[in-house]
Amino acid sequence: MAASTVDGEVEVFTLPFKKSRNLKLRSVWGMGKELYMFQSQIPHKEREESQRSFSESNIFDVQWNAEMHDIARKLVNETHNIFVILQGQVKSLSQSILYSQLRKASKQYRAVLKACSMELMQIADSCTDESKKLKYEEHIQEFEMIQLIWSLCEILFIDVAPGGLVLTSLLDWLQWHFQEGKQLATKVIHSDQPCEHPQYWEAIYRLLLQGDTENVRKLLALNVFSHSDSFIAVDEVLKKMPRWTYQHAQSVAEYEMKWRHWREECVRRYEAGQFAAYPELETIVQVLCGDEAVFKDLKDCCETWYHLLVSKLLYQNPTCRIQDLTYEIKPCQAVFSNSSPQIQELDNILQAALEFDLHQVIKDSCTFLSNRSWWFVSHLADILHHCGQLDPQELPFGSNLREYLLLEYATSLMAHKSLYQVGIDYLDFCPVFGRSYIEAYVERIPLETERKAHKILHICLERDLLVQAQSICKVMGMKCLKQERFGSALSWFLKSKDATVIKQVTDRFLNEYCEEGKFSHLDLIDHLGPSMLITNSLTFLAKYREFHTFYNNGDVKGAVNLLLSLISSRLAPKFFWMTMLMDALPLLNLPEVVFNVSQTYELLHCLEELQRDGTSNYKNLKETEIEKLKLLRIALTRNLANAILQERSVRTVSIS
Amino acid sequence: MTDISVKFVSKKISKIRWRPKSDVKSAPSTIFVTGSWDDQQNTICVWDLRDRIAASDDRDDEISALDHEPQKTFEMPYAGDVLDLQYLSSNTFAVASSTGAVTVLKHLSSSQTLAHLCTWDKHHQFKTDSPAACTCLAPRGDEWIATGGEDGQIVIVALEQRQPVQTLDKADSCTINDLTFLKQSEILSVNSFGQLKTFDLRQDPKQHAQIFSVTENHTPLLCLDKHPGQAHIVATGGEDGMLTIWDLRQEKFPMTLLEAHTGAMWEVKFHPHNPNHLFTCSDDGSLWHWDGSSTDAVSSFTGTKGKKHSI
């Protein structure tokens, strides 16, 4: 099944753009199923017209396949929970226990769906805005259809009755989804004269067609003539109707025999004319006999062909198996001729299900039911896949059907401001493409606050996405740098462990020192600890601060040695050498000689190198700096002289 | 193992707080307030634990609070993410926003709604004048509120005044993640560089009183709480899930380091009456109860896969 066959209706969005000759529409991808649309000017190739900027320019954020996620957010969250637990169980449990868990999960999904549907109905009732109300009602209708399809699929594919005898489950399905019979019956019972109620017989027929003989008998008992022979006879027959339940340990053959026996009795009684007095009773018994013609007459009580199908089977062939269902479809459909196009779609899906064509079911559901959300098809496909019902064959797309659908669902979640976390969880369970999708998306989630950045980092680290984690740290750091928060920038860059970006921050610190004469973020710099060894620039910064500390404490020797080692190691950036040499000046001017000959030569060497470098030429320096350089040279030369004298002279020790 | 009641609320909740009792003798509070984050439109909601609709009147045994399901009684939209929420008194509480604003709201007793008392906009700003998120709040009594933000400033405001009482604008080089009042004029804060700092409000703001560091990795510290009785004992939680207990009388290093969670620890709280007990909640979805008398974690409640933000 090619991926290109899963194409939906074309969705049309109307956007309020001003039409203009110079403006065209452009777009940029957002996250997932999201496009940003905006207008921009068509560049003029011939002459350079001054670009007239138009006053209003809007950017429109267009999202699709995600309408349901805001309205029924609870559905997304609760089913996410169920989904994740299920995937965990798939990995760990054995086949037989897994099977019961899959059934449970399917029921849980349906329960959540029902709860959301009811909540939505409450909201729609209390809503005053007409357009919103309409929207809610569309959603409710869609939920109804989804519940119908899902429960049928559960009966046919997931929770298959042993031996393939599906009739009981199908009857339950009918009773659950077609409630009009019960509602009518309640109405009738509560009226004054039940048997005079215009819909009395209709209620009875509806209940009969759903196999609800208990309530039929109750209604019949309310009739004025319930003591007449015909009524009593009908009551008897209804009471004796054999029902197939799992509790009775009867075999299929036994049940079938009982049922045939019972039906023969019905036919006998009917032909004996026991019910001739009351035509409605005759209709009832005809139904019990499984007469073809009467079902056609009662088609209005069935409303749909699938209801008719199940009803007919109940009275004609109650031990039918799943495979037998297909034969009945065409005749039942023929009875109901016209229906609106929307119902047509639903019919197609149900027909495909009854014909056991699972792929057609999924394909049609994708086309028809995924405009608002891919929720339904993806979750259903997941369960069917784990039941082994879905063909695990690879599509030309590159992965199997289940993964394709899960990817669609997860992608539509990513565009939501808040549900991206749920989307990522779903992508975790897509073995082929999931990881690459996560890698692409996680870097593009907007990071507004630090807390969000921490959370997304945690997501990356949980999944070993180290490259992305590093990139996020760098992005946060650059943001901080732009806002001139050097401290925060440094802490983010340290996390990313990237030397180049750390150097940017340390260069800014050093610049600040050059300009203002002091460091601003001492609480950070003094407490770097072992992380200063991450890059050279940090080490330099920390050591330079240490030099200051030595100097302030009066430890001249330590200060001198440190300064020299810093200068000779050439760790410092070029613009800072001047400052360091100037730091040496007060030390040179001390009364005693602290720099020995080789150290002084070292300083001179550094000075020469600095001057040879074009940036510190005499032409570029200011007055004060030229002054300073002169002082430095004088001090150095003097120091050299003193140092040579000191080292080369022989100390005479007088012995007395 | 106690019962846990779960309710899906369709919003990511960042802070949840019980409303304090108005006086000591009244029944335990059934009202709590939640603030949401990371959504198109964030909200602050007031919830009440009401009886479940199913009749449980015929039960003679005590109905524990957990049998009730919280009902939303009021919802109010809020600009930006709610980053912190603290009660100032039994009626009023302050909310810190990611837009840099601080808002004080009040419970109206007549209706179950909230009224807006005052807002300080742009409470925290970066040097480039763009708004900085206000990350934490600490009340002192019901008059003063100290707030810290991503700009590294600590600002102290009094309820009735527009201008701040005091601003420590170079308080921190990194983002301040949580703070609390140690004494009347001393503040304790933790930041993203893994440091715990004390500030004395009476002294020159350019000096910090003390700086403490956890480990050398500089993992951000995310939350802190002080011991209710002994003010020199403080507990902090970090991004690596480590719980640290400090003795502020000692210099520089913490007293105890406990490896706890596998995810970031977002909140830590001492039990107000029984300080031997400590609670921590974290990103890995679990809530841990620590018993100081035996120095082991007594019990851990693991929630669903959702991440826990606040206690």
From TrEMBL, chain A:
Compartments where found: Nucleus, Nuclear pore complex
GO molecular function: structural constituent of nuclear pore
Keyword Protein transport set for record: yes
Membrane-spanning ranges: none
The UniProt record lists the keyword Protease: no
A GO CC annotation given for this chain: nuclear pore outer ring
Entry superkingdom: Eukaryota
Sorted UniProt keywords: Membrane, mRNA transport, Nuclear pore complex, Nucleus, Protein transport, Translocation, Transport
InterPro entries the UniProt entry points to: Nucleoporin_Nup85
Family affiliation: Belongs to the nucleoporin Nup85 family.
Its biological purpose: Functions as a component of the nuclear pore complex (NPC).
Description of how the protein assembles with itself and partners: Component of the nuclear pore complex (NPC).
Protein name as annotated: Nuclear pore complex protein Nup85
Protein species of origin: Biomphalaria pfeifferi
From TrEMBL, chain B:
Protein's name according to its UniProt entry: Nucleoporin Nup43
Signal sequence region: none
Source organism phylogeny: Eukaryota, Metazoa, Spiralia, Lophotrochozoa, Mollusca
One GO CC annotation: nuclear pore outer ring
Residue windows of the WD repeats: 234-256, 258-300
Keyword Protease (UniProt): no
Originating species: Biomphalaria pfeifferi (Bloodfluke planorb)
SUPFAM superfamilies, A to Z: WD40 repeat-like (SSF50978)
Keyword vocabulary terms for this entry: Nucleus, Repeat, WD repeat
Domain of life: Eukaryota
Keyword Repeat: yes
Subcellular location: Nucleus
Coarse class of the protein's main subcellular location: nucleus
